[in-house]
Write a structure and sequence with these properties.
The complex is a heterodimer of chains A (425) and B (304).
Chain A: H1 2-9, H2 16-40, H3 52-57, H4 62-83, H5 85-97, H6 100-119, H7 123-148, H8 156-175, H9 191-209, H10 211-214, H11 223-241, E1 252-253, H12 261-280, H13 282-292, H14 294-299, H15 304-330, E2 332-333, H16 340-353, H17 358-374, H18 382-396, H19 409-413, H20 417-424
Antiparallel strand pairs in A: 1-2
Helix pairs in contact in A: 2-4, 2-5, 2-6, 4-5, 6-7, 7-12, 7-15, 7-16, 7-17, 8-9, 8-11, 8-15, 9-15, 12-13, 13-15, 16-17
Chain B: H1 2-32, H2 39-61, H3 67-94, H4 102-124, E1 139-142, E2 145-148, H5 149-171, H6 173-183, H7 187-190, H8 195-220, H9 228-243, H10 248-268, H11 274-288
Antiparallel strand pairs in B: 1-2
The chains are: A mainly alpha (425), B mainly alpha (304).
Chain lengths: 425, 304
């Protein structure tokens, strides 16, 4: 046990910049050498999700997949991270001097670059990455209502459906010639530029729809609100199913492919940034106050009604945006998507990752989405394993893995060597 | 008028399922202040157990046992076995989470439900089974209103079960312990009534009732499906809330009401509007009566 701890301590002086450098080299290696290495290791092609799919399909591949992961990912990241640590720390210290927002932007661009190279290997990875990022937006936005505000809202698939259908209708109506809405009203070249406004419109519709849940929440909370939100979700689903103009139960298809990887990534980064600012603002603290004790919060001049409406509308807005992105990533939506199963998925992500924590939400969304994709070859057993993991997490960490932790950018990007030297003294 | 009466009987039958299932939700809520989100899937498992027992009994003993005997045996054995499913859910999903936030227990419940559904698909495969009829269906026609003996049985059996449960809760010592537990979660264990006995008992009764509802459901709609628990379970959950949390009578009434709404909506509008209108009505009711029909007005401060 101590040996393992010491092994990990070896890497504790690598700052984020160092990890990113290592990952960059790893991704470059995969990009240029991946085919050759997988050929020599008798792998049919580059393992998509770290070889999970190969391992689960044919266990005989385990050594090759492990060797591949070691050569391509583990060795470059760990070795280079360790070797470049002094340099990376110097870089991190340099970046610490410039304004935080600028430094964060540089890091985000670097992360995007790595992600782009990694996902660029094949289309499946791109899809997985996009859907994961959409889940991150969804999870964080539900965390506002369920974590920060402390309600148990079940209406997120409904908000998502509102956003997805609004934005799909707008893009199909405005920018494409299709059977459903006829010819395009605007030149298609404008589409990608106006796409953000389309998404915002979807979010706005979802936010207005959320009033149907937010206003009853003045009088009730807990289980009754859960039912009201659940009813809302079913109403939206059923209403869309009955609207022939929106394709009814068949849904809408052939949305233009505006949701490219950079677009989805930019929206996710924007969402994390805005929601982080929101939750650390006075309004965010008011949400926590209302959650912990509504009467006390009220007596301390917190306007509880305004707080609740804000939380719901804000959460629903981002759910609507996520829905719009979801529709344009898959380029197909139907009402059946936005049912109980989607709800269970989003709730699982939020409660797995941890309440009241953006960091936790990101962890939850990424782990459940990637796990879901990686376990795909197990087919049905996947739906035994994921629930079991969740039950265990709930039993041993009832608030989720990383709950009540704020995202501290300064701490994440700081150089790591100083603290270690202090510890050694 | 005949059309109306016909639908009234259909609604009574359909509402019976909701009523019996939603009682299971309501009872657990009364004792633990938690909703057992796996209850819909306990109903599903109960139905499959009933299916297995009925098939077995019909194959083994249809020669020398009369039909009603097989029916009663099926019900009794299924109730007995299904109650263990309820106890299992309590033991695995709810007992370790007594001190945890309520939402966490809701998540475990949901996940146990998913495990039941998937487990069913893995064990039994994707083929659809059909529940064997335990009695010969006889149609009656009184003044133009058609109904079968199965329908009568479903309505009467549900009422009998509810009455029996009511008596159990109001008249027996165990029932008194359950009622006491729903009044005070902290003091009652000090009086020597263990929550670790009462909670499994509640889950067991709920599961037993749900499994009987499952057998009756199998008589009316013989095709079994691993996801049948979702459809009825969530609606019954809504009924349990609508009736007022913890109120068994309220849950039963709300179950019937939901059945009526669904059947009569389908009578007037196209049937695809059923969910839309049913849930809209529920939304309106809960907006104006946030505690449901018989919800207790005691403090909303949560005990767990």
């Amino acid at each position: 046990m101590d040996k393992i701890k010491n092994f990990f301590r070896m890497f504790s002086n690598i700052p984020l910049a160092g990890w990113l450098m290592g990952s960059f080299v790893a991704v470059l290696m995969e990009y240029y050498l991946g085919d050759a290495i997988s050929y020599y290791l008798y792998l049919p092609k580059i393992p998509v999700l770290f070889g999970a799919l190969f391992i689960l399909k044919e266990p005989i591949m385990i050594p090759s997949v492990l060797a591949y992961d070691l050569i391509i990912y583990a060795l470059p990241i760990l070795l280079l991270g360790k070797l470049l640590a002094p340099f990376a720390n110097a870089l991190a210290r340099m970046l610490e001097k410039i304004p935080l927002s600028l430094a964060t932007l540089i890091y985000i661009v670097a992360i995007y670059g790595i992600l782009h190279l990694w996902a660029g290997i094949n289309d499946y990875r791109v899809l997985v990455v996009k859907l994961t990022m959409v889940s991150i937006i969804l999870t964080i936005s539900l965390n506002i209502i369920n974590g920060y505000q402390g309600e148990f809202s079940c209406s997120h698939p409904g908000f998502m459906a509102l956003g997805a259908y609004t934005s799909s209708t707008l893009t199909l109506l405005l920018f494409t010639d299709d059977k459903m809405f006829g010819d395009a009203l605007l030149p298609a070249a404008l589409g990608p530029w106006l796409f953000p406004f389309v998404l915002i419109a979807g979010g706005a519709v979802a936010a207005i729809g959320s009033l149907a849940v937010a206003i009853p929440s003045f009088r009730t909370r807990g289980d009754y609100l859960a039912i009201i939100s659940l009813a809302f979700m079913f109403i939206v689903k059923s209403a869309v199913e009955n609207m022939e103009i929106l394709g009814g139960p068949r849904g809408m298809s052939s949305q233009p492919a505006y949701a490219t990887l950079p677009v989805v990534f930019a929206w996710m980064a924007l969402c994390v940034w805005i929601i982080h600012n929101f939750t650390t603002s006075i309004m965010g603290k008011a949400l926590n106050a209302v959650r912990d004790n509504e009467a006390a919060a009220n007596s301390m001049t917190v306007n509880t009604r305004k707080t609740k409406v804000t939380a719901f509308m804000f959460g629903a807005f981002w759910a609507g945006v996520a829905g719009g992105l979801f529709a344009h990533v898959l380029r197909y939506v139907n009402p059946g998507t936005f049912g109980i199963q989607k709800l269970a998925e989003i709730l699982a992500m939020v409660y797995f990752g941890g309440l009241n924590s953006i960091y936790g939400s990101i962890v939850g969304a990424v782990s459940i989405s990637v796990l879901g994709e990686a376990l795909r070859p197990l087919e049905l057993w996947k739906w035994i394993i994921i629930p079991l993991i969740l039950i265990l997490v709930m039993i041993f960490r009832p608030h989720g893995l990383i709950s009540f932790t704020e995202l501290n950018v300064k701490n994440i990007i700081r150089p790591r060597d100083k603290k270690l030297s202090k510890g050694v003294e | 008028m005949e059309y109306f009466l016909q639908n009234l009987i259909n609604a009574l039958q359909w509402g019976s399922f909701y009523a019996v299932i939603s009682i299971g939700y309501s009872m657990v809520y009364g004792v633990l202040m938690l909703f057992n989100f796996a209850h819909g899937d306990i109903f599903m498992v109960g139905t499959y157990i009933g299916f297995g027992i009925a098939t077995l009994l019909l194959a083994l003993s249809s020669a020398f046992l009369p039909g009603w005997m097989i029916f009663i045996l099926t019900v009794v054995v299924t109730m007995f076995l299904a109650s263990f499913v309820g106890v299992f859910v309590e033991y695995v999903g709810y007992r370790p989470l007594r001190g945890a936030p309520r939402a966490s227990a809701a998540i475990t419940g949901l996940m146990i439900g998913i495990i039941f559904e998937t487990g069913n698909l893995i064990i039994l495969g994707a083929q659809r089974f059909s529940f064997p009829p335990l009695m010969e269906s006889v149609s009656y026609n009184i003044g133009g209103v058609y109904f079968t003996n199965v329908k009568v049985l479903i309505i009467v059996a549900s009422l009998v079960m509810m009455l029996a449960l009511h008596t159990f809760i109001q008249k027996t010592k165990w029932g008194m312990a359950m009622r006491a537990m729903s009044y005070d979660f902290l003091a009652v264990p000090l009086m020597g009534v263990s929550i670790n006995v009462i909670a499994p008992l509640t889950f067991a009764i709920g599961a037993g009732l749900a499994s009987v509802a499952g057998i009756l459901y199998g008589q009316a709609y013989p095709v079994l499906d691993p996801y049948m628990g979702i459809l009825l379970g969530w609606k019954a959950f809504v009924a349990a809330i609508l009736g007022g949390r913890g109120s068994i009578m309220g849950a039963a009434l709300a179950g019937y009401l939901l059945g009526f709404i669904e059947i009569f909506v389908a009578m007037v509008f196209p049937s695809t509007f059923r969910d839309l209108i049913a849930y809209s009505i529920i939304l309106v009711i809960l907006t104006f009566r946030p505690r449901g029909f018989f919800g207790m007005a005691h403090s909303t401060r949560l005990r767990l």
